[in-house]
Amino acid sequence: MNPRHAMSSLLVIAGTALLLAGCGGGSGSASGASAKPSGSSSQTTSTGVSTAVKISNFKFSPASLTVKQGAAVTVTNEDSAAHTATADDGHSFDTGDLSQGATQTISVSKPGRYLYHCTIHPFMHGTLVVK
Ligand SMILES: [Cu+2]
């Protein structure tokens, strides 16, 4: 193998690297995206903030719940009758029919004030505020 040949290809590589670095201009910290291996670190919210809605006696409790955007809200039906928690707008979230003791998790990523109801008992209303 010709050593000069090897050297020149090294130079080419170095030159390319310089060009790439030169193009970055200014804020060169963009490449700091760390690819963490997904796994073990499932974060549990230990802040004691309630992100659960219970349905009992044909009422949502609490009637109004404020959560952070994307937070998981657990809806549990404690009545013997089936209920749903369905966004009034018809698409933001819907637990579907929850039979007694059934639980469904919903989450809303867009901030806003969401009114919801039970499709089986339209007089049941609740509010979910997403911040
Ligand atoms: Cu209901």
Spell out the key features of this protein.
4-stranded mixed β-sheet; alpha/beta; Immunoglobulin-like; 8 strands; binds copper (II) ion; 131 residues
CATH level-four homologous superfamily name: Cupredoxins -  blue copper proteins
- Shape descriptor reads elongated
Structural class: alpha/beta
| Poorly predicted ranges | 22-48
What is the succession of H and E elements?
HEEEEEEEE
Biggest sheet, spatial arrangement of strands: 2-1-4-6
CATH topology: Immunoglobulin-like
Give the name of the CATH architecture. Answer: Sandwich
Tell me which ligands are bound. Answer: copper (II) ion
Specify Rg, calculated over alpha carbons. Answer: 27 Å
N/C terminus separation = 65 Å
Strand content: 25-35%
Helix proportion range:
10-25%
How is the main sheet built? 4 strands, mixed
Q: What is the count of helical runs? A: 1
Summed up, the domain count is 1
Task: Please report the total strand number as a whole number.
Answer: 8
What is the top-level CATH class? Mainly Beta
On the 0-100 scale, what is the average pLDDT? Answer: 79
In short:
The protein has 131 residues and is an alpha/beta fold. It contains 1 helix and 8 strands; from the N terminus they run αββββββββ.
Can you describe what's shown?
This protein is of the alpha/beta class. It is built from 1 helix and 8 strands. Strands 2-1-4-6 form a 4-stranded mixed beta sheet, with no helix packed on it. Strands 3-8-7-5 form a 4-stranded mixed beta sheet, with no helix packed on it. A hairpin with a 2-residue loop joins strand 1 (52-56) and strand 2. The radius of gyration is 27 Å and the shape is elongated. The structure holds copper (II) ion. Residues 83, 118, 120-121, 124 line the site of copper (II) ion.
